[in-house]
Description:
Mean pLDDT of chain A: 88
Structural class of chain A: alpha/beta
Oligomer: heterodimer
Helix content of chain B: 25-40%
Strand order of the largest sheet of chain A: 2-1-3-4-5
Strand content of chain A: 5-15%
Order of helices and strands of chain A: HHEHEEHEHEHHH
Shape of chain B: globular
Distance between the termini of chain A: 45 Å
Structural class of chain B: alpha/beta
Low-confidence stretches of chain A: 1-11
Order of helices and strands of chain B: HEHEHEHEEHEHEHEHEHHEHHHEEEEEE
Number of helices of chain B: 13
Distance between the termini of chain B: 53 Å
Number of strands of chain A: 5
Strand order of the largest sheet of chain B: 7-6-8-9-10-14-15-16
Shape of chain A: elongated
Largest sheet of chain A: 5 strands, parallel
Radius of gyration of chain B: 20 Å
Number of helices of chain A: 8
Low-confidence stretches of chain B: 1-5
Amino acid sequence: MDESDLRNRGFGSTSLLNRLRGLRVVVCCPDNPEREELILNLQRFGFKMETCWPPLESITEDIDLVFLAIVPRGVIPAWALERDSRRAALIAIIGYENPTIMNSVLRISAEGVVASPIRQFGLLATIVLSLQIFEHHQSMMKQVRRLELKLIGIKQVHEAKLIIMNARNVSEEQSYKILREEAMARRMTVESLARTIVEANKIFLHL
Amino acid sequence: MTKANMASSDPVRVGVLFSETGDISTTEISQLMGTRFAVDKINAAGGICGREMQIVHYDPQSSPGQYRVLVEQLILRDKINVIFGCYLSSTRKAVLPIVEKWNKLLFYPTLYEGFECSSNVIYTGAAPNQNSLQLAEFMTFNYGPRVYLVGSDYIYPYESNRIMENLVCQLPGGGKVGERYVPLGAEYEHFKSIIDDIKNVKPDFIFSTVVGNSTKYLYQAYADAGLNPRIMPIASLTTLEAEVNQMGAGVANGHISSAPYFQTVDREANHKCLDEFRYMYGNEFCPNAGWEAAYFQVNLFAQAMALAGSDSIDELMPYLLGSEFEAPQGRVRVDPTNHHTCLYPRIGIFNSEFGQFEIIRQAKRAINPDPYLISHSLGEWSLRHNTVDG
């Protein structure tokens, strides 16, 4: 993916900043003066707010960002532990900076962290950067999945070529030509035809 | 600070927040008395450059919420610039944002879990590299590396236990064989099932991070179960003279604690302090490490103020950082880089015959505070301590 792609997908500075107004945010934090301060600041930014404590059991798809208070030895919801399937960026709220708390922050793989009591200055920068890191991670994961599939496809094309080479007693080059022409005739991709051949061959071998 | 306040005859008013009631009262009363003692002595010697020190004290009832309210009252209503106070980390955390907001100065005379360094605080209690490390080394060497962790349910025990676990795991066969937490203000009943579990698991030693008035119940439950401290003692950083006073000497016998100060420190400065303290206040109050830190930190302040001529933080701080004082535990020094204090780690084993902790290990030199140390290593301290006969 080149830089212009990234910009189109929203990683460019302008589009991310343009999307901030109206951001949907959930604040999972016990009711205390610090939470009031945080909410006040988020409202000033123009975000749509929800608060909850204890933390929600699941995060709905329309949420962009979650703040989660790290309570020592507190229960961490399952969605917070799975970064790859999480749908919203996550910012941890911490009251202490010792390794016990840091371990919790690392466990949930938060994109950002804010210290309680919350200071107004720096909050927006943390939010913006966290959103960028989260979206970047999401897009990287998507790409990784695509490449994984691609890799499996290449492996299967190679296997299918071998099968055709053996069955027809042809060279590798000819084998690939047969595969490609057959795929075109059937209006499928070379990869999916290769998969069919590999699967069929497996069944055939077991007969 | 206003001009009027600066007049050379005006009293120097300082804020004091230690609880006389609530779950942590015993320990905090010791710290309160250490503070009063220092102030009374300074005044008897003519005050700070002729100015009398006056204490404005409130009882925060061992509650973070009360601490928050009262520190604001001290700063805004009483116009106080310097505050001595706090035992629990949760109360320090409640006070800190307000102290920082108004740029005031807090002296904190309590051991704690580290990982903080506010420009508005002078920390005079031990950081983990000044007590946990020494305790782990002593316990694992003498009793074995399998530890059972019992603590009060808040941040200091979690982090202290993490450090202890990290230390014992460095040894072959070492590790945590149990970890239990009780609420602050726990009763005897809370400890019964824990002691039962300990009897089953048979650790090499127990590490207690139980704090406050509950401490006595852990040791009482241990004694009632007929467990033997010679074989499997309770080790602690927080069970000191005040707590032992509450539980009775027999129950504490043979258990082990690590602190920079015990009443039995054999130094002229300590003997003199203890005599004076008992002469002034009788035997009702119990000197311990919190008392001693509370005492010497007031003196650190008075020294700095005499030089600065002001109690505003900006003027005091240059004279505080790097300053030294001949404390009962030894000559202490405020580390200018991290606002914590260079202290003398000691290990004491309680001896009910003398009714005191017998000091069996002590550092030859003051150990520099290192509040941001994540992984401590066993074996670093042994080269630098004296073994006291016994």
